Amino acid sequence: MGIQSSPIPAPPADAGTSAREAPAAIERQIGFERLSSLYAITEPMLFGGFAFTVVTGVLLASSVPRLLLATWLAIKIALTAARLVDGRLFLRDRHRSLRQRHWKSRFVAGVVLDSVSWGLLSALCMPTADPAINGVLLAALVAVASAGAIALSADRLTSGLSMVLVLGPLVEQQALTPTLLARYTAAGLVIYGALLFVEARNSHRRFTEAMRLRFENAAIAEERRRALVYAEHSNAAKTRFLASVSHELRTPLNGIIGMTQLVAVETLSTLQRQRLDVLRHSAEHLVNVIGDLLDLSRIEFDRIELNAQPTLIAQTVRDVTDLLQPVAEERDLAFEVIFDLGLPAAALMDASRVKQVLHNLIGNALKFTARGGVGVAVAMSDGLLRFRVSDTGEGIPPEAIERIFDAFEQGPSSTAPARSGAGLGLTISRRLARAMGGDVTCRSVPGVGTTFEFTIAFRPTPRTPTPRPSLSEELAAAGEASAEPVARVGRVLVVEDNEVNALVVRGMLEQMGVDAELAVDGEQALARMGAAAFDLVFMDCQMPVLDGWEATRLWRARETRLRQKQRLPIVALTASAAAGERERCLEAGMDDYLSKPFSREALGELVDRYLAV
C-alpha cells in the first residue's frame, strides 16, 4: 500500500522577505483606506454643502446681481451633481483598490473646483453695501473652510488645498480693503488658517497611525494564522506519514517475528537458535522504535489515550521487574524491589502506561550499570504514587540532566552500546507521567549513580482487583501446558491478503491444533462464511476488492436480516497503530482487535477466548 499525501499550504514567507514587503503593502492599504474615507464622507458633505449654498443664495439675493448669483448657483449645482456621480462610480469600481491614483486625482479635482467656487464668492461679491451681509459671507466662508479642513484631514494635501482656496481670496480681499477692521480681519484669518492647518495635520497623523496600527496588527494576525495552518497541515502530514510507514513496516515485521516463533518450536541446533534469537530481538527492537515514534506523535497532538482501571500496584510493578530480572542476572547485577508499608493495595490507573514508563526507566538503569545493582522503591506521599529507580552506574553530568528528556537525545555513557535506542524513551516517559498527573525527574552524581523518580496522581479505587499469578508463575504454567499441547476444537477462517502473514497465522493456528482456512479479501471471505460454518474469523482490515471493515458490516447486516441467533466472532488483524483504530474496528462490528506484529501467545489467548477448549 502506497503512502498517500495531501497538499500542504505554502510555508509562511521568509522573515526577511516579509519585513521588506510588509511596509509597502501596509502603505498601500493605508492609502486606500484614506481614499475610501474621503469618498465615504463626500455624500453627506455635498448634501450639507448644497443646503448651505441655498441659504447663502437667499441671503445674497438682495445684495448681489441676479445673473452673477444665478451663475454661481448653477456652477454649485453642477459640481455637486458631478461629485455625487463620481462617488457612486467609485463604489461600483471593483478594482478601485488597484486604481488609487486615478480615483484620488478625480477626488482632488472635485475638491479643488468646489473650493474655488466658494473662494470666488468673496472675490466677486465682497464687499457689499450691507455690512451685515459682509459679516454673513465672512462667517459662511470660514465655516466652509473649517468643515473642509477637518472633514478632509485624512489626506493632508486635499485638506490644505481646500482651506487655501476657500480662505485665500477672502484674506486677499480683506487685506486690500483700506480699513483697519478689514486688515485686522485678514490677520485674524491668517492666524486662524494656520491653527486650522495644524489641527488638520494632527488629525491626519492620528488617522495614519491608527490605520497603520490596524493593518500591522492584521498582517501579524494573518501571518500567525498562516503559520498555524501550515504547522497544522505539516503535523497532520507527519502523522499520516508515520501511520502509513508504521503500517508498511509492521506488516513485514509480523511475518518475520511470526516465522521466528513458528521455527522456534522446531528442533534446532544451539547455533541456529542463537541466530534465531538475534533475528527475533532485532525485529522486536524495530517494533519498539516504531511504537515510540507513534507514541511521540500522539503525545505532541495531545492524542494520548489513557485507560484508567482498578489496578493492583505491587503486581503491576512485579510484572515489569519479573520480566527484567533475567537481564540483571545476565549482567551480574543486584536487583532489589522494595514496597513501602503504607502503600495502598490498588489504585485507578492505566497499568499498561505505568508499565511502559517503568520498563523504560528500569531497562535504562540495567543497561547503563556495569557494576553494583539497581533498586526499585515504591511508596505514596503527598497524593502521589512514587516509583524510584536507582542505579550505581557512572551517572549523568549536571548539564546533561534536562537534555536527556529531549527527543532523540541520549546521555553520555561508556557502558551501553553507542546510540543504543532511538532516544525517545525518556521523552515519552515524562510526557506520559505528566498526562497521568505526575512527572519524571532525575538526580545524579557522576561516578556514584543515578535516581529517576516517576510519579503519578494517586486515584483511589472503590474495588480491589483479584490478584492473578505472577509472571514467573504464568511462565511456569505455560511451560507445563506446552509439554502437552491441547487441541482447540473449532473451525477458523483467516482473511489476509498478505501471503506471508497468512502463512504465519495459519501456521500458529495449526500448531495450536486449530483447523484454519484462508481467504485473500473481504469478498472471498463473505462467500466462504456464507457457504460454510466457521467458529472464529481473523479479519485483516486493509485489503483489495473489499476491506475488512466493510466485509464485517455486510456480514453483521446479513446476520440481522436472517435473524441468526449465533453471532460469529470476528477479530481484527491490523498493522495500523493509529489512534482510534480499535474503536473503528469495534464500530464496524468486530468483536476484538489484534495489532501486528503479534505473538503466538496473544493469538492463542484470543483462540481460547472464542473457541471451546
Structure description:
This protein is 61% helix and 12% strand. By secondary structure, it is an alpha/beta fold. The protein has 3 domains: 15-225, no CATH class; 309-412 and 420-463, Heat Shock Protein 90 (2-Layer Sandwich), CATH 3.30.565.10; 480-610, Rossmann fold. A hairpin with a 3-residue loop joins β6 and β7 (449-457). α1 (15-60) packs parallel to α3 and α2 runs antiparallel to α3 (100-125).
How would you summarize the topology of this molecule?
Blueprint: H1 15-60, H2 66-92, H3 100-125, H4 131-151, H5 156-176, H6 180-264, H7 270-300, E1 309-312, H8 313-330, E2 334-339, E3 346-349, H9 351-367, E4 373-381, E5 384-391, H10 425-435, E6 439-445, E7 449-457, H11 471-483, E8 491-495, H12 499-511, E9 515-519, H13 522-531, E10 536-540, H14 548-561, E11 570-574, H15 581-587, E12 592-595, H16 600-610
Domain Histidine kinase: 244-460
Modified residues (4-aspartylphosphate): 540
Transmembrane segments: 38-61, 67-86, 135-154
